[in-house]
Structure formats: structure tokens, C-alpha cells
Amino acid sequence: MRKKKRTTFVTLVLVLVVIAILSCCNGKDGCRDLEYLQCIENKTFTGHVIKTTNLIAPGLEECQMRCFAVHDCVSYNLGPINDHRRTCELSSSDHWTFHDALKDMKGHEYCPIKNPCSSKPCPPAKPLCYPDFAWDKHTCR
Fold it and tell me: Which residues form the Apple domain (predicted)?
């Protein structure tokens, strides 16, 4: 009898975990699915940084995870490696929306994320494209 109660309890806990995960992905905010593109060396994206952190080098995966965790993150920069550390700058936009904000910067890396704005879908009357990663759509403003 005791083993049956334990099995029932474990099953109940697993069901609750699955429900919690599914509710996170199917709620009003959707479920972010990011495809990180190859970083562009000696470039940085300026003027739209929303958060800066200092990481242990190389830091690529950690910066990607931080970007995923911040809803407004659309791209990120990695600073040069200095004494086994580097900066991770999360940006609220990217070079597809503000191409003039992409600057040459030796030792830096600009890392875009594939998004619905990369095909430049917005008309000239509303040229600014804002991606919605959760629903794989965009808004033109």
C-alpha cells in the first residue's frame, strides 16, 4: 500500500510539472523560440543596450541564455576578452531595424537572432519592424 501511495504522489507531481510547463508556453506571452545566428566579428550594435553584464570568457552561451531570459532582448554584443572576462550587452533592437547602429569595433562581436524582421517586411510608411519571438510575427511602426 505504501508503494502505491508513493507512485501516486510521484505521478501527481509529474503531472503538475507538465501542466506548469505547458501553461508557460501557451499563455498570452507565447513561448520564445530563438535561433541565434553567427556573431559578426569586429562589430557592435549601439544605442539600444538594455542590460550589460560581465562574464567569464568565452561567455557566448551564457550571454545567449541571458538574452533568452530578457523578453525585450533582440540581439547582443560580446566585448573583447580581457583578463579571462568579457562584457555581454543585451539590445532591444537589431541591425535589420536600425542598420546605422551597427558600428565597427575591433575585438567586439555583434550577435543577431533570426527573427521575422530579417526579411524587411515593413512598408516605407511604417519602416520600423519589431519582432515577436513568442508568436513568430512582427509589428511595423
Answer: 31-117
